[in-house]
Specification:
Blueprint (H helix, E strand, L loop, with lengths): L1 H8 L5 H26 L7 H5 L6 H9 L1 H24 L3 H18 L21 H14 L8 H11 L1
């Protein structure tokens, strides 16, 4: 028990800060992982409807992907496996910086595909009314917090990797 307190005295964060950062990393990771898992186990899932429903400045890119069967298949594969890998890495504290960056890019694409702006009506039912800020933007900032306040080298598999690298 004495060593535990010595460990916390050397940390750049207080116990409560570290705890909340780790919890944030894990719950965002779980959400991302589960989104990928639910798509993986659904044999009828495809991003085609979501992509065709895109609005905004970048809609032509997303609808273009949906109209090309090869690009659509690649988008579906990258989406599912990107969500699974990013989510797992965040939950496990493995390659946190890469996983956080990947999450920001992937969720950023969702945000750009369906921007919460006045006058845009989407086919999929919304969970509420948004203007500029929606759950995607909030999740981008949540992941950004873990990017600028990394914690996986303190609590996560990155700690083991870091220790192994430094012992060599």
């Amino acid at each position: 028990m004495k060593n535990e307190f010595a460990f916390f005295k050397t940390l750049p964060y207080t116990k409560s800060q570290l705890s909340l950062l780790v919890i944030l990393r894990i719950i965002v990771g779980w959400h991302i992982f589960y989104e990928g898992f639910s798509k993986l186990i659904n044999p009828n899932w495809s991003s085609v409807g979501y992509l065709l429903d895109s609005k905004g400045w970048f809609a032509f890119i997303f609808t273009g992907i949906a109209s090309d069967p090869t690009l659509l298949k690649l988008a579906d594969i990258f989406n599912v496996w990107g969500l699974l890998i990013i989510g797992f890495c965040l939950m496990a504290g493995l390659f946190e910086r890469w996983a956080s960056t990947g999450a920001i890019v992937l969720i950023g694409l969702y945000y750009l595909s369906h921007p919460p702006l006045i006058g845009y009506k989407f086919e999929a039912p919304g969970e509420g009314s948004y203007l500029l800020v929606n759950k995607n933007l909030i999740e981008i900032f949540a992941v950004s917090i873990n990017l600028v306040f990394p914690n996986s080298r303190l609590i996560g598999l990155d700690r083991l990797i870091y220790q192994l690298r430094n012992n060599k």
